[in-house]
Amino acid sequence: MKEIKRYDINEDWAHAGIVQAGEFCFLNYCVRNTDGTIEQQIDGAFDEMEERLALAGMTLENVVQMNCLFKNIWDIPVMEKIVKKRFHGKYPARKSIQTEFADPRNLLFQVDAVAYMPSDSQ
What we know:
Blueprint: E1 5-10, E2 15-21, E3 24-30, H1 38-55, E4 63-70, H2 76-87, E5 93-98, E6 109-116
Helix pairs in contact: 1-2
């Protein structure tokens, strides 16, 4: 196996935003636009995900699994509309969970993901 690569390091939180291990990348805590509407936060989270994936030479098309965390689980249809727009039919497996975020901001949505790139594509 190639070396494990870590990108988007946050020393204060002691975590990496994306970890590449072989053909897989693991992304966590994709969040953005926390002062915005649920639509703005979901779009922003996918913007964050795209930027992190680009660090490893990947795109949203490489995402194979997502865990979507909501403050209000009834916002799933909003996310589904945005996923259709952003993933263009190449949808990852997905789980949606309602949670109380331990965050002082108006956090309504967060997404974690796993992305895959075959070694012959790297």
